Amino acid sequence: MWWMRRAPGGQLLLGVALLALSAGGEDQDSTAADIFVAQDGTLHINSTGRVLLNGVDIMAELSNLRAFFDEHPSVTWQKPEQNILGRFDGGVRWVATGDLDEDGFPDVLYVVLESRTAYWRRNLGDETFAAPVPMNDPSTPVLTLHVSDLDADGHLDVLGTGIANNTVLWFRNQGNGTLAAGTVIASTAGGIHLATADLNGDGHLDIIQATYRTRVLNVFLSKGQAGSFDAPRMLSGSGSCAALWAADLDEDEHVDLLTGDFDGTALVWFRNLGNGTFAPPQLISNSCGAVASAVAVDLDADGSVDVLCASYSNGTILWYRGLGGGRFSEPLLISDVLVQPTNIQVADMDKDGRLDLLATSSTNDTIVWYRQTNVGAFSQAISISDAGDRVFTLAVADLRATGNLDVLSASFNDGKVAWYRNQGDWAWRARFY
Ligand SMILES: *[C@@H]1O[C@H](CO)[C@@H](O)[C@H](O)[C@H]1NC(C)=O
Ligand SMILES: *[C@@H]1O[C@H](CO)[C@@H](O)[C@H](O)[C@H]1NC(C)=O
Ligand SMILES: *[C@@H]1O[C@H](CO)[C@@H](O)[C@H](O)[C@H]1NC(C)=O
Ligand SMILES: *[C@@H]1O[C@H](CO)[C@@H](O)[C@H](O)[C@H]1NC(C)=O
Ligand SMILES: *[C@@H]1O[C@H](CO)[C@@H](O)[C@H](O)[C@H]1NC(C)=O
Ligand SMILES: *[C@@H]1O[C@H](CO)[C@@H](O)[C@H](O)[C@H]1NC(C)=O
């Protein structure tokens, strides 16, 4: 039955209702469809069955196209331009973000390797950044940073640690757009990474420091007052601790610790007994080779935390699927095309509700993105940039407060801090189908 009507608002609606044909005699599919032209001239066809155009099944063809773009992401993808925030002789080791001045735009923090100095640049919200504010004194050098509200006063603080000097430094956010001078929280050798988590359930954030040369994780439990911590408890047994992640790996509501060996091959985790003491390290795998970066996150959203590692030695990104209770699957290969990856990050870059991966391929200077195209399935590497010479660290932040996550990189050989704009066109679904 065909019908037409003119809507009161002047909108022309051309409706087609194909009523279900009676079972007797007809060999066509019975289906229901709506076809209408909206005010802006757009023709809408809604069908609960197939849509044939001159006999071609349009929906099936679109689905093939979608699979093709998923499989060959570089066909129509254009790398975003590299926006350089700063260049420094002697390399940049680290980049981190956090809205320190609470203006709604994440600021950028980075560490220049040669001077071991951390800088804070306020994000002015219009793709420009204020002049760099140096954070630490040269006598307390810094290598890496961690942004966290350590004293739970509602303002993001910054923690720094450095491999040469033996310190954990705390830059308290004074809440008025300034950071206090760094106070030494602890003096322990060889720090390379920091994390914060409430390890003993007392409501206060504790600090974990991974050390490279001294090959331990130092756990500093908070005494409850701002900036006051117990002497470190040392966890060892994992070789050089070149990666660090704090997460509840066995779903017992206590934050466990993940670390990996850069000089050996062990990827291990320490189970938190609930009071900030830890069981001996448990091996997740030796198949990652030299662990450059490790992340613990529920990648496939099945309720169990998964583990990811980037192998510096053979360029693979491996995924150990969480099986629950701190057990992990055999390694699943996500990528084997990188050359000496140094960092992986996990974020939903295309806003499809699934976590994607970002990784560096430091020797061939690329930053790549693996879209999670379907639960547990990843695209080929999509190149974000090949303009950073030996990228060490990546960070992800919505720098322009548009709802789209941008990418930041710190590279060593060319000393660049750079960012890559996500215009919303990274939303694959909106671009391609
Ligand atoms: C057609 O489908 C779209 C998207 O699902 C929906 O928003 C719209 O209301 C549908 N129109 C009709 C007439 O059913
Ligand atoms: C930190 O290291 C630098 C260079 O290695 C040294 O000059 C400085 O005295 C050290 N500072 C402290 C507090 O140990
Ligand atoms: C910010 O607060 C600190 C501590 O209260 C104070 O010393 C400093 O002068 C303030 N700075 C500004 C710019 O208001
Ligand atoms: C922490 O908990 C474990 C397991 O309950 C217990 O064996 C250990 O003595 C506790 N340690 C401390 C320091 O409370
Ligand atoms: C990567 O290296 C590790 C350790 O050497 C090895 O077990 C693993 O099989 C390697 N993976 C690949 C894909 O070569
Ligand atoms: C570098 O690695 C990326 C990551 O897969 C790869 O796509 C690219 O082809 C490599 N580039 C060169 C120049 O080898």
TrEMBL record:
Name by which UniProt lists this protein: VCBS repeat-containing protein
UniProt xrefs under PANTHER family: PROPROTEIN CONVERTASE P
InterPro entries the record matches: FG-GAP, Integrin_alpha_N
Transmembrane segments annotated in the record for this chain: none
SUPFAM superfamilies documented for this protein: Integrin alpha N-terminal domain (SSF69318)
Keyword GTP-binding among record annotations: no
Keywords carried by this UniProt record: Signal
Signal sequence annotation: 1-24
UniProt KW Signal keyword: yes
